[in-house]
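To make this tangible, this section ends with a sequence with its structure tokens:
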Amino acid sequence: MSTLPKIGFIGLGIMGSPMSENLLKAGYDVTGYTLEQPKIDRLVAAGGKGASSIAEAVKDADVIITMVPASPQVEAIAYGPDGILENARKGALLIDMSSITPQTSVDLGKAGAEKGLRVLDAPVSGGEAGAIEAVLSIMVGGSQEDFDAAKPVLEALGKTIVLCGPHGSGQTVKAANQLIVAVNIQACAEAVVFLEKSGVDLTAALDVLNGGLAGSTVLTRKKDNFLNRDFAPGFRIDLHHKDMGIVTDAARNVGAALPVGAVVAQLVASLRAQGDGGLDHSALLRAVERLSGQPVQS
């Protein structure tokens, strides 16, 4: 019998499925639940267990991990008679790895404590590729004691795992991360269109740029998306639109100016309004093509 904690995993989407599978590879007993049966079947095929409800997934879990799109979904799975807080056993560790508002994480931490649960907010960066490769950057909010308890589990999912402060701190750092990523993608997209319209060999140009100060993880990860116009979602524009709303609201609350971030937030919103919300965020390239009078490549 394994002495590792039993894990209940809620949310088996683009990120959650490979994350749950990496936990299985690390030897954990994982019971998963999500709204789509084929995704539960995928977990079962990988060696996990499927649940028919949130309550079933969490009732025997020592650690509960949630990975859902936004604050409303976190609240929907956490609260109410069928939610996590009412059905998890006392002493269980709830690690919410969704990207949500800092205040939602603060509220969840308080509500969880009232039910005898330990709670961490632990959003991630690295996208689908990082999830598959188990090299995510994980920014955590909560107590040192709970972070120490969670770290062995998180080490099966990521490489850079840092406690950033009390509840909500992980989400604040994630908001900053999404600001940096969006601005970086936008800059790369503008450079791609500039280079193409100038008649430069794009592959050669991106290779040399990525070897210098202009290089970045974003360019490394998204270079092929730009070159091939492959915008299959690793991280959807819809979700980045949500995250830009989080960072702009949070910045306004603390009195921080985000002049470039505000512009990029509007560009993300515009791309979404044009029907591209389901595409990868590297599809910001399509917005630059439109603005530049260049045919949008599919």
